[in-house]
Write a structure and sequence with these properties.
Layout (H helix, E strand, L loop, with lengths): L13 H18 L1 E5 H20 L2 H10 L3 H14 L8 E8 L6 E7 L4 H12 L29
Antiparallel strand pairs: 1-3, 2-3
Helix pairs in contact: 1-2, 2-3, 2-4
């Protein structure tokens, strides 16, 4: 029984798991959106939320704690100067996980994990949408299948 054993092993040794999660959190904070497996995304969410909380604190000790997890100084700078101020009024729940399907090679369940809130992309889209005129809606119907004549049912075969 696995009582009182929190967390996922992800089929790795403890050092490999730590390195994987450090790389994932660095990539997430750098790109603000990544695609990974469901299990990795759920483990990553815990660490990413802690890093953003450190960014919100903003003192030297918090920056050094973030540097011990995040791989590059550039990403730590982005965390403290750009990402953390966006979440200043939010009490947790900084990430969103959306399931996207399964991977072709091994059928592993995939998810997209992203930072919640209005980022640069959403603000730019709103600005562009405000400036553009709305396009008239086109009717989208199902495309007819080849070899199928309307009104005759499936009498005519698609294959000769």
């Amino acid at each position: 029984m696995r009582h009182r054993k929190a967390g996922r092993k992800l089929g790795r040794t403890s050092s490999h798991l730590k390195a994987t999660l450090r790389n994932l959190v660095t990539s997430l904070l750098e790109h603000e959106k990544i695609e990974t497996t469901d299990a990795k995304a759920k483990e990553l969410r815990k660490i990413a939320d802690k890093m953003i909380t450190l960014g919100k604190r903003g003192d030297l000790h918090a920056r050094r704690q973030a540097l011990s997890v995040i791989m590059t100084k550039k990403v730590v700078k982005k965390l403290f100067e750009e990402i953390a101020p966006r979440f200043q009024n939010r009490q947790g729940g900084y990430t969103r996980i959306m399931k996207v399907g399964r991977r072709l090679g091994d059928n592993a369940p995939l998810s997209i994990i992203e930072l919640v809130g209005e980022g640069k992309a959403k603000k730019e889209k709103k600005k562009k949408a405000a400036g553009k005129k709305e396009k008239p809606e086109r009717k989208k119907g199902p495309k007819p299948q080849p070899g199928y004549e309307k009104g005759k049912g499936r009498e005519k075969s698609r294959f000769p």
